[in-house]
Automatic annotation (TrEMBL):
Its EC number is 6.1.1.17. This is glutamate--tRNA ligase. It comes from Xylona heveae (strain CBS 132557 / TC161). The chain holds residues 179 to 705 of 705 of the full protein. GO terms for cellular component: cytosol; methionyl glutamyl tRNA synthetase complex. GO terms for biological process: glutamyl-tRNA aminoacylation. It comes from the Eukaryota.
Length: 527
């Protein structure tokens, strides 16, 4: 069945094959609170949100998959709630796998009593080998009473209990590895961030997902297709427990070149101080990407446009940023920045002293309002521009007017331009002239700013699972330049997106403050 509907923010439509069209759709996004959300999670979250609300009456559930206390924390749980908010995703309900620990425990006991699960103490070591070779575990025939006793022992967290796990008795010799008697319960003594030390045994994700999807009324379980082999297992659990069957729809993972999308590895670079934190603009986290200057609307459109595809791609970032440019260009006010180390001071003849003009913030979008342009006898422009001038050339000082280049003064070794004399010309023709960015060099008009651009953290296109992150970190990824910006930038609010003319788009990361010496802008990639 095809579903076609308008995406909320982008206003675009997407053709997506769905396994069911009956009634309303209930989906769930099941993050594990073991890290901040990244761009891969954004795909899962946005697709779930999209399907849930594609027709009236649908619901998006956010269910924290908090079944492994060793990796999880309250900090991450809170972070994920906030990350969803940042993407304008409002779940219709939020729940926790840990809310169902008692119920899942009882269902495990039920499986055992029906002869569908057994206790095993070979899983941790030899079990994997047996599974690979499609051999039964030597405990496979352990009886119901003995299995129940072992499970009981496990719940105490004793040394003996910790040696055991519970496995579903499905098919040790199945061609599908996920059916070879998967583990459903394990011991863990680490206190849980929500349930503390109440539990010493925890269900695995494999056991949890089919149960909770069914119990919570999910009508469409979206999963990434690396789980496709697990679909048969998912159905087996629902059958074995007599639960309502939930249809599955799978989509591909979203990966990007030179980008880590493993929470374990991201945690590692945060903990080792390789980045400023989870919201570092070089991080592929939702916070990092937004801090770099991505807009939510563009993120949504990008994900939904390529989302339904089932090929696992290693995407290039440039397509992603090109989407963003469509959104930011029409609304970004235009400002001026002159690199400080390249500033050339010029005297402009034929003008009165300081004057203040009023110009549109973006000539094509008068609705964005106006800005002040200070003009005067002394201005700064950039070395590259100065070097391109020939004597008596007519140039255009953007937002002001034309001028002739009358005198070019080189520095002592003759390599750089030390000063220029310009002669202002009223009403010159701007069609054939170079357009030059400049600023009046008067107190207050030259605002100190840092322009920061970034490189990829990872130096290899596709990191393999076995690659050590430390071996593939780009040595230098932050490039900071000092510049003068026009006086209007002082009024910009934190997170504002602007264009510095002839330089590109930037997002304001540190707004003007009286006692702060410099404002900070991050370069927003556009390709
Ligand atoms: P990691 O491997 O980094 O720990 P995970 O997949 O285990 O990630 P979860 O918190 O369990 O992290 O993921 C929540 C949801 O996001 C899952 O449905 C998962 O399939 C999906 N997801 C995670 N990474 C991606 C990705 N790169 N592309 C698409 N969906 C993803
Ligand atoms: Mg997971
Ligand atoms: Mg994972």
């Amino acid at each position: 069945a095809k579903v076609r509907a308008a995406a909320s923010s982008a206003g675009a439509s997407y053709d997506i094959d769905l396994p069911t069209l009956e009634g309303h759709i209930v989906t769930r996004f099941p993050p594990e609170p073991s890290g901040y959300l990244h761009i891969g999670h954004a795909k899962a979250a946005l697709l779930n949100d999209y399907f849930a609300h594609v027709r009236p009456g649908g619901r998006l559930l956010c269910r924290f998959d908090d079944t492994n206390p060793s990796k999880e924390s309250m900090e991450f749980q809170d972070a994920i709630i906030k990350d969803l908010e940042l993407m304008d995703i409002v779940p219709d309900a939020t729940s926790y796998s840990s809310d169902y620990f008692q119920q899942m425990y009882e269902l495990a006991v039920q499986l055992i009593k029906e002869g569908k699960a057994f206790a095993d103490d070979s899983e941790l070591g030899k079990g994997d080998q047996e599974r690979k070779n499609r051999l039964p575990s030597k405990r496979r025939n352990l009886g119901i009473e003995e299995t129940l006793a072992r499970f009981e022992e496990m719940t105490t967290g004793s040394i003996e209990g910790q040696r055991w796990c519970i496995r579903a008795r499905i098919a040790y010799d199945s061609p599908n590895g996920t059916l070879r008697d998967p583990v459903i319960y394990r011991c863990n003594l680490t206190p849980h961030h929500r349930t503390g030390t109440s539990w010493k045994v925890y269900p695995t994700y494999d056991f949890c997902a089919p149960i909770l999807d069914s119990i919570e009324g999910v009508t469409l379980a979206l999963r990434t297709n690396e789980y496709r082999d697990r679909n048969a297992q998912y159905e087996w659990f629902q059958d074995a427990l007599g639960l309502r069957k939930v249809p599955i729809y799978d989509f591909s993972r979203m990966n990007f070149v030179r980008t880590l999308l493993s929470k374990r590895k991201l945690t590692q670079i945060v903990e080792e101080g390789k980045v400023w934190g989870w919201d570092d603009p070089r991080m592929p986290t939702i916070r990092g990407i937004l801090r770099r200057g991505m807009t939510v609307a563009a993120l949504r459109e990008f994900v939904l446009k390529q989302g339904p595809s089932r090929n696992t791609l290693n995407l290039e970032w440039n397509a992603f940023w090109a989407f963003n440019k469509k959104y930011i260009d029409p609304v970004a006010p235009r400002h001026t920045a002159i690199l400080q180390e390249d500033a050339v001071y010029c005297t402009v003849h034929g003008v009165d002293n300081l004057e203040e003009l009023t110009k549109p913030k973006y000539i094509k979008k008068p609705e964005l309002g106006t800005k002040k342009v200070l003009v005067g006898k002394t201005i700064v422009l950039e070395q590259v521009d100065a070097q391109s001038f020939t004597a008596n050339e007519e140039i255009t000082l953007m937002n002001w007017g034309n001028a002739f280049v009358r005198q070019i003064t080189k520095d002592t070794d003759g390599k750089r331009i030390a000063a220029l004399d310009l002669e202002f010309r009223q009403g010159g023709d701007v069609k054939k002239t170079k357009k030059i960015t400049w600023l009046a060099a008067v107190d207050g008009n030259l605002v100190n700013v840092d322009l920061v651009s970034f490189d990829y953290l990872i130096s290899k296109d596709k990191l393999e699972k076995t690659d050590e992150v430390g071996d593939f970190l780009t040595p230098v990824t932050e490039f900071r330049k000092q510049a003068f910006a026009d006086i209007n930038v002082k009024d910009l609010e934190h997170s504002a997106i602007v264009q510095f003319e002839r330089k590109g788009y930037f997002r304001l990361d540190a707004a003007f403050q009286k006692d702060q010496p410099r404002m900070v802008f991050f370069d927003i990639p556009t390709r």
